[in-house]
Amino acid sequence: MSPLIEVPNIIIRDRAFKDNRIQQRDVEYLLTKLGASEDFSNLPTETVYTILSRLETADPRGLKAKNIYRKLIESKNKGMGKNSSKERSSQ
């Protein structure tokens, strides 16, 4: 799914995390500060459309599509698309 959505491969049970007392919430906080988004609500509408338009090629068997569409539905209630360049210019 790499060409579509990047998912960090973080093994929170790794010894380095345990030795340094780094917890899941610490990793999530850092990823958020770096600009990672857990859902689609913070992404510009254009980015969401790009993801959807590439979905057929990036996931031809549809293994990830169900999760992506579920996240889209969940994000709709959080104000998805507020960061669209078209929407910003009309404000």
Give me some keywords for this one.
91 residues; mainly alpha; globular; disordered C terminus
Helix content: 40-55%
User: Main β-sheet: number of strands, strand sense, barrel status?
Assistant: none
Mean pLDDT, as a whole number? 78
Q: Distance N terminus to C terminus?
A: 35 Å
Structural class: mainly alpha
Instruction: Write the element-wise H/E pattern from the N-terminal end onward.
Output: HHHHH
**Annotation field: number of helices:** 5
**Residue runs with pLDDT of under 50 for 5 or more positions:** 83-91
* Overall shape: globular
Q: Give the tally of β-strands.
A: 0
**Integer count of domains:** 1
What does the model show?
With 91 residues, the chain is mostly helical. It has one domain. The protein has five helices and no strands. The protein has helices at residues 15-19, 24-33, 45-58, 65-76, 85-89.
In short:
This protein is mostly helical and 91 residues long. The chain is built from five helices and no strands. The N and C termini lie far apart (35 Å).
Could you outline the blueprint of secondary structure elements for this entry?
Layout: H1 15-19, H2 24-33, H3 45-58, H4 65-76, H5 85-89
